[in-house]
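User: Quick one: structure for sequence A, then sequence B.

Assistant: Sequence A:
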Amino acid sequence: MIIDNKETLNLFPQPVFKYKIDNFKEYNKKLSEYIYNLNKEDKEGVQRSNRGGWHSNSFKIVDTNSIQYKFMKETTKYVFDAIQTYGWELEPKKVICSEMWAIINKKNNFNIRHTHPNCNLSAAYYVKAPKDCGKFTIENPHSVSKHSYPISNRKTEFNSKIEKLEIEEGDLLIFPAYLPHGVEENKSNEDRIVISFNIIINNFRD
């Protein structure tokens, strides 16, 4: 029996902000070209959370005429929205994109769950996301979820250990950098292309 006469205080939720980038098709065409060119110039890339696939080195985002710079500027309004939704004080000059990179995952490639240390927010943007390319996975960061727990007879926000999000091209996910996340195996025959970046907010108080 569930008692109706109660108040449930859902404390300390974990946000993942999901946006659809304006004019994403136009951005994705140019971003794909840029990323594939990077791949041709640097076949080896770097190894981080990717298992198989290709992980680029950090984008060079100094040239104001480059597509990567224009994309970074476009995402600023979404980052600002996430900050304000959190209830944090927004000081635009103190919000810094510390790093941005791309990952190309072919069939059977995936990204293990991981976090992004030394930053406040992280983001994943989908340049190319064919059907069955793999869901974005999020692990419950509360330490108690890693201990023993009773058997569940239905899924709720209180007993969930892992959540999986369907993603599409043009989707931008912004989330706390400490949130363990990954991407499932790409089961399609096409590439999945993701741009990730980190945000540092330099307005901490003692």
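Sequence B:
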Amino acid sequence: MTTNPLLQAYDLPPFQAIRPEHVQPAVEQVLAENRAQLAALLAEPPAQWDWASLIEPLDEMGERLSRAFSPASHMNAVVNSPEMRAAYDACLPLLSEYSTEMGQNAALFAAYQQLSEGEAFARLDTAQKTIIEHALRDFRLSGIALPPAQQKRYGALQSRLSTLQSQFSNQLLDATQAWTK
């Protein structure tokens, strides 16, 4: 059994080892792990959230996802093949759904809100405060305050937008590759 290079630690992405069949399993595994970690994180919240108990674990989750998908995204753009394109496109709805879940997670929003209103917030540096303020803005832009039916509609629109963006990128890439002088 071979190991998935997208799930291994690396300094530089092992582009030569990455195959289309690695992409979706890696993304699915990281998303499942991230969801489990988020559930555990929010299951027993501390009396007061702080940077180390909330933001750092979330940042690590985002970094794991980026390390699994970014090399595949890059390869889709520069060494595009039908197989890589299919693998990349298969992940877009998964990533869109995950992003919407994160942006509409009421417990996560409440944790950010508590952090921003707590005494620990005053001790953070300007960059940390800005990160939290931008996260709260992003929750609002993701429809956290919408009724459930409208949140679901927002998720559907985000998924459709992701599909359309990929179609546009694919058509642009095809046109560029087909051009000759």
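The mean pLDDT is 93. The chain has six helices and no strands.

User: Thanks, that's what I needed.
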